[in-house]
From TrEMBL, chain A:
Subcellular location: Cytoplasm, Cytosol; Nucleus
Protein name according to UniProt: Histidine-containing phosphotransfer protein
Organism: Ziziphus jujuba
Annotated InterPro entries: AHP1-5/YPD1 (IPR045871), HPT_dom_sf (IPR036641), Sig_transdc_His_kin_Hpt_dom (IPR008207)
Role played: Functions as a two-component phosphorelay mediators between cytokinin sensor histidine kinases and response regulators (B-type ARRs). Plays an important role in propagating cytokinin signal transduction.
GO biological process: one example: phosphorelay signal transduction system
Pfam families: Hpt (PF01627)
Keywords: Cytokinin signaling pathway, Two-component regulatory system
Domain HPt: 45-161
Gene expressing this chain: LOC107423312
Free-text comment about domains: Histidine-containing phosphotransfer domain (HPt) contains an active histidine that mediates the phosphotransfer.
One GO CC term on file: nucleus
GO MF entry, a single one: histidine phosphotransfer kinase activity
TrEMBL record, chain B:
Organism of provenance: Ziziphus jujuba (Chinese jujube)
Keywords from the named record: Transcription, Transcription regulation, Two-component regulatory system
Residue ranges of domain Response regulatory in the record: 35-137
Comp. bias intervals (Low complexity): 165-224
Keyword Transmembrane set for record: no
Encoding gene per record: LOC107419907
Region Disordered: start-end pairs: 163-235
GO biological process, alphabetically ordered: cytokinin-activated signaling pathway; phosphorelay signal transduction system
InterPro entries in the record: ARR-like (IPR045279), CheY-like_superfamily (IPR011006), Sig_transdc_resp-reg_receiver (IPR001789)
Protein name, as recorded: Two-component response regulator ARR5 isoform X2
Domain of life: Eukaryota
Length: 188, 235
């Protein structure tokens, strides 16, 4: 593929990311901060974001994991209870399992807040919006809501990660072929 | 004075502030370059704000917590004795700007009341940094002369080339009722970092709220922070 074609592809792909809501104006802002003295600024920041996000998602999963375990156990417990008779099993089932383990919602909220901040700093607006919804469930201490949101946030994150990696690969190809990234052609 | 109290409360709440501060210990000298202390616990935000400030011709030091910010400023509990704290009255002149993704008016209010100069809502843009810098360059500090008695941080409105350093700190820890989850920008005069000044009583007050405010684009006379906030809100 010749350089001009690749450049057009880059412009179209970038525009599509904005139109589909994956990226917002903050990403353009980052591109404006890139120049000859800092030619890899956007890539550096985005890869920092990826690193940060992997860690945050792990922390979030761990913070909610105890709840997942409890739910699975409780489901089994209830099924067995219905089969054998509730009172019989209550004697054997430790009281602690009957009580819902407390999820540290403050901790979860702290992680989500961090994720919301970093995603908005690079312009990953879908991830940010998913984080906002997540925080609402944290405030309500709604466990199912939180678990659902965690899935949503993960999904949006992996989607935008994929898109950005594709974009950067395209940029590398353009530069390797001797061309330059046509940032000025991004008119909105 | 509110700002001296701000620093003292900043110290108390340093554990709650997850901000990054980097210290630059270059000797004070008159220069046109503003030195900003950026505090933010997020890697991504630190990198972005560092770049934003460098592009705006500011010298930047970025750190990751309020604790490190205080260490940088020499206000750390372990290192400094209570007596040294009085010398931090020089730091009361440092304008502090808070940055946060939380856009809660009550919190912004409290930050301003506690002495923050301004509040920026994240994500921070180049225009925000430019506006703050323009605002800072139109302010005058009376602490240019080391022998002069501090007048409690009163500012006069004169246009003058910025000869002091500007510190920016930000934190993005999750907001709690008292802890700032925002970054603060503070500026200090390059000449007054080591100068002793008459001790001023630090005002007692509530814990440091997080606040962020965007500076008005045009220089205004020194009003109360509340008035400035109201001006900004009506913008």
């Amino acid at each position: 593929m010749e350089v001009g074609q690749m450049q057009r592809q880059w412009v179209d792909y970038t525009k599509s990311l904005f139109l589909e809501g994956f990226l917002d104006g903050q990403f353009l802002q980052l591109q404006q901060l890139q120049d000859e003295s800092n030619p890899d600024f956007v890539v550096e920041v985005v890869y920092l974001f990826f690193e940060d996000s992997e860690k945050l998602l792990n922390d979030l999963t761990r913070a909610l994991h105890s709840m997942l375990f409890w739910l699975a156990t409780f489901e089994c417990f209830m099924k067995v209870c219905c089969f054998w008779g509730f009172r019989f099993l209550c004697i054997f089932f430790p009281p602690s399992y009957r009580d819902q383990p407390s999820v540290d919602f403050k901790k979860v909220d702290a992680h989500v807040h961090q994720f919301k901040g970093s995603s908005s700093s690079i312009g990953a607006s879908r991830v940010r919006n998913a984080c906002i919804a997540f925080r609402n469930f944290c405030e309500e201490q709604n466990i199912e809501g939180c678990l659902g949101c965690l899935q949503q946030v993960k999904q949006e994150y992996y989607l935008v990660k994929n898109k950005l990696e594709t974009l950067f690969r395209l940029e590398q190809q353009i530069v390797a072929a001797g061309g330059s990234i046509p940032m000025t052609e991004l008119s909105f | 004075m509110a700002r001296n109290g701000f620093v003292s409360r900043w110290r108390r709440s340093s554990e709650r502030v997850n901000a990054a501060v980097a210290c630059d210990v270059s000797p004070p000298h008159v220069s046109d370059e503003v030195h900003v202390l950026a505090v933010d616990d997020s890697f991504v935000d630190r990198k972005v704000i560092e770049r934003l400030l460098r592009i705006s011709s500011c010298k930047v030091t970025a750190v990751d917590s309020g604790r490190r910010a205080l260490q940088f400023l020499g206000l750390d509990d372990e290192k400094s004795s209570p007596v040294d704290f009085h010398e931090s009255s020089t730091f009361k002149e440092i304008p502090v700007v808070i940055m946060s993704s939380e856009n809660v008016l009550a919190r912004i209010d409290r930050c301003l009341e506690e002495g923050a100069e301004d509040f920026i809502v994240k994500p921070v843009k180049l225009a925000d940094v430019k506006r703050i810098k323009d605002f800072m360059t139109t302010r005058v500090y009376r602490f240019g002369n080391e022998e002069e008695e501090e007048s409690g941080g009163m500012m006069m409105m004169n246009k003058r080339k910025l000869q002091d350093s500007l510190d920016l700190s930000s934190s993005s820890s999750p907001p709690q009722s008292i802890s700032p989850s925002s970054s603060s920008l503070s500026s200090s005069p390059s000449s007054s970092l080591s100068s002793p000044s008459s001790p001023t009583p630090s005002s007692s007050g509530s814990t440091l709220p997080s606040s962020s405010l965007s500076a008005p684009s045009s220089p205004i006379s020194l009003d109360s922070p509340i008035r400035r906030l109201k001006t900004t809100i009506t913008d």
